[in-house]
Amino acid sequence: MHASIIYQITIQEKLDSQWSEWFMPLVIHNDTDGTTRLCGPIRDQAELHGLLAKLRDLNLTLMTVDRIEPP
Question: How far is CA 4 from the centre of its chain?
Fold first, then answer.
């Protein structure tokens, strides 16, 4: 079994907290510049691609996908 990897995904639009359950286990952070960061563990590439498909289906603008290396 592989350990989850922490990702930070930034989108151009603001997401309300009502989407929290749909994007679990990621946490939604709204930034002052109007962008949104989704941060949290993703098990594998299939889960990552599924999340990116959700963003696409909502017609959200993907800005960055960053893999966060553990300290």
Answer: 14
- Alpha carbons 25 and 3: distance in angstroms, whole number: 14
Tokens of 16: 């309300």
Among the four given CATH numbers 1.20.272, 2.60.40, 3.90.226, 3.30.70, the one describing domain 5-68: 3.30.70
CA distance 31 to 57: 22
Parse the chain into domains and list their residue ranges. Answer: 5-68
Could you tell me if 37 and 7 are in contact, meaning their C-beta atoms sit under 8 angstroms apart?
A: no
- Per residue of the chain (71 residues), give pLDDT as tens: 467 899 999 999 999 889 999 998 899 999 999 999 999 999 999 999 999 999 999 999 999 999 998 76
The pTM of this model reads 0.89
